[in-house]
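Researcher: Re-running this chain for the archive, since the previous output was lost when a drive failed. Same request as before.
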Amino acid sequence: MSTMEQIKSVLSSEEPDYKGGGKHLDRKALGYLRRIVTKGDPMTASKAVYLASLVRGAQSEGVVLKALRNPERVVRVAAAGASRNLPPEARNAVLLALLGDGDSGVRRVALKSVPAHPSAKLRAKVYRLSRESPDLAIRRLAASVMQHLSVEA
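Model: Regenerated structure tokens:
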């Protein structure tokens, strides 16, 4: 059984042991993690997003999706990294949303998190960014990502 104290203990470290500290967390932990993502300080919330992505189950995806609406850049960047731990459909949804983020740093990390076999929508978004982004660095990174995507969608 997970408690808020157990979660805070895992997240209090500067470099949390996500795998070791999170392996005993259950679905109840996701409620606590969701609360931290929405109401916690930005650094703890960013760690909570990643930890939530390691707890198996559909509810973990909900915590990562909740992070997309966080006003703090560091939390949205953490969601991009955490997307790597999600099932393909959820990962594609998270990255699709983050590629439209108003912060170029968030878009950059999201582009670096695009899997080799993205959904058709995600592939199309990366392609549009490679052609139409007003940010030259984002255009170049998106073009580079397009070169590494598989030809199958």
